[in-house]
Every structure is written in C-alpha cells, then in structure tokens.
Amino acid sequence: MGHACELSPSEQEQIQQWVAAHGTPQQVALRCRIVLAAAAGCSDVTIAEQLSINRKTAILWRNRFSEQRLDGLWEVAPGRGRKPTFDIDKIAAIVDATLQTKPEGMTHWSCRTMATDQGVSKSTINNIWQAHNLKPHRVKTFKLSRDPKFLEKMTDVIGLYLNPPEQAIVLCVDEKSQIQALDRTQPGLPIKKGRCGTMTHDYKRNGTTTLFAALEMLQGKVIGQCYQRHRHQEFLRFLRTLDKEFPGTVPLHLIMDNYGTHKHEKVRAWLNRHPRFVLHFVPTSSSWLNMVERWFGQLDDKAIRRGVFRSVEDLKASIDAFLIAWNKDPKPFVWTATVDSIVEKLARCRRTLEKLQPGCTNPRTRRRKK
Description:
The chain is an alpha/beta fold and 370 residues long. The protein folds into 4 domains: 9-73; 88-131; 150-328, Nucleotidyltransferase, domain 5, CATH 3.30.420; 343-369, no CATH class. 47% of the residues lie in helices and 12% in strands. The protein has 15 helices and 5 strands. It has helices at 9-20, 26-39, 44-51, 55-68, 70-73, 88-100, 111-118, 122-131, 150-162, 232-245, 265-273, 292-304, 312-328, 339-356, 363-369, and strands spanning 169-184, 203-216, 222-227, 252-256, 277-281. Strands 3-2-1-4-5 form a 5-stranded mixed beta sheet. Strand 4, helix 11 (265-273) and strand 5 form a beta-alpha-beta unit. Helix 1 runs antiparallel to helix 2 (26-39), helix 3 packs across helix 4 (55-68) and helix 7 packs across helix 8. The protein is globular and about 70 Å long.
C-alpha cells in the first residue's frame, strides 16, 4: 500500500501547475502524477497500473517526495552518458539571475545575453530554462478589475454559464469596433511545399466597420450585423434584430460589458417596453468573462487578419461569409471555471502585486498620497 502522502495546499497547487505546463519535462510530470495519485490515497499497485509504470517506480518517488518534498521531483537520476558539466549551485545561480535580474539597458534576458553574462553556452542556458519552465521572452497581459460589485457581477454571469435558467436563452452580446479593411500594397505569394504564404508588411487603409454580435450559449450560433458606427442607435437596431431572431415570449438573458451605449436612456426605455430582455453586466475591465470575445478571436484569426480587402464592402462580405460558415456547424464554447477558483487566482495575483509594490495597488490612492 505505501505510507500516506500528504500535500499542503501550496504543494498541491505547484504540482498541478507543473503537470499542466507544456514546458515541464516528461519525467518530472510523471513524478508529479505519482505524488498526486499517492495523495489521493491510491496504492502503489494502483498507481503503477494507472500510469503504466513499474510498482517500484511508484514506491521510489513516493518515498523520495516524503524526504525531499518539491525539490526532489526535479532531481535528475544518475545514469549513463556524459555527466553534467555544471553543479547544482551554478544552475541555481543562473535560475536566480533569470528571475531576479535584467540585462543592462534591456527588459529581459535572451539565451545569448544570459550565456555571455554567466560564462556558459547558449545551449546550456536553453536546457536549464526548459528544465525549470522559464520563458523570459514571453509575457502575458492582465488587469485587475476595481469594480466595487466585482464578485456580485461575476457570480451572476458565471451562474448563467454553469447553470443557465430553464425556458430561457442566454446570449453573449458585444461589438467589435473599428475593424479595418486593409489592402496590401503588393500581391502576396500563395502557400507551396516548403514555403508558407507571404504578404507585405505594409498596407493601405480602406475604411472601417463595426460588428455587433450575439453568441447563443447553448448551441453556439452567432447573430451578427455590421454597422458604420457603434452608437446607441445602432445598438437599438441590433436589439430589434435579436427580438425578431428569437420570436415569442422566451426570456433573453444578455451578457454585456459596461460600454455607455448599452446604458443609454433610449436603450433603457426600449428595454422597459420589452421586459423579456434581461441584462447582465460583466465587471469593469473583465471582458474575458464575455464568451463572445472568444468568438471574436476566431473571426479575427480565420477571416480578417490575413485578409485583403479593397473596400469596406469586401470586409463585410468576408465577415458575413464567416458567419454563414460558422452557423452551418456551430460549436458552443463551454465555461468550466468556478467562482471560487477565479477568486482564489485573483487573490494570489493581488498578493503578488502587493509584494512587488507595497501600497501601490490603487493608483488613485497613490496620487492622493503625493
């Protein structure tokens, strides 16, 4: 059976992150899965059967983790072949320099700049970074919402995703504004064996359009219309389109952002006359909660970014063609994150920001202190 393997919450979180990360070495990911299975109460025989490994391997890493905890999972077992050129202290120094320092006059390290600074080869740096899942060249964007009703609004929206109301339709509504009709200055070359397609880096602007879209959550169908502008007049026209697209008295729950057009007095007056429309607003700076943004990404990647449009009409025709093709075989987007998991993740983010900039998480407060 093997002794019980207990994990602290931080260890559980770290091990799950290593398992999910694409850059984690396979041998380390396997050790993590062994530990997670052991923590779940599985016997060594069961772990061996589930992971298709030898029972002694499960025993080895269960015991190794009990002795060395997280550090033991990344240990490289001795074997045949050339022995490591650099000791653990040197590797730790490179990892620490990657995490804690920056090259002079630059924002981040590259393999070559770090290799020059540490006196090793760029291949060595690359191997160490891969082993520790470090990617200094990459960065992700984020913004924490300061909406005072953040939790209330987020709970409302996620509740619609995870437990939609019966006898009602949930629609994610938004507008993708300022879509540019870009024409290339020279014809591109088509794709061929051994060469990808090409297009010029410069372009000519031929105008813009705004797409109003509503994603029906259950089936994945999208209703979209292009307009020249994105004022409350256009939004009202789109609401009337939705009213015709979904006839009858079935309630329509609309998930939207806090753009001023959505709250215009004439829009509110129209909604009062059409009580079947129920609005749900995502928190400010939280457009990631609106699933139609995911569909906008598909539209941009598959129909707009590589397109060549000599006029706005060409652009609209391309958008309409993508809509028709999508709705022939719609694929709904499935929301899986719970409110608790998001709140926990945001809390960790806030704690990290407070450590990096104590007392500076609120710029308004910072300006008053000055």
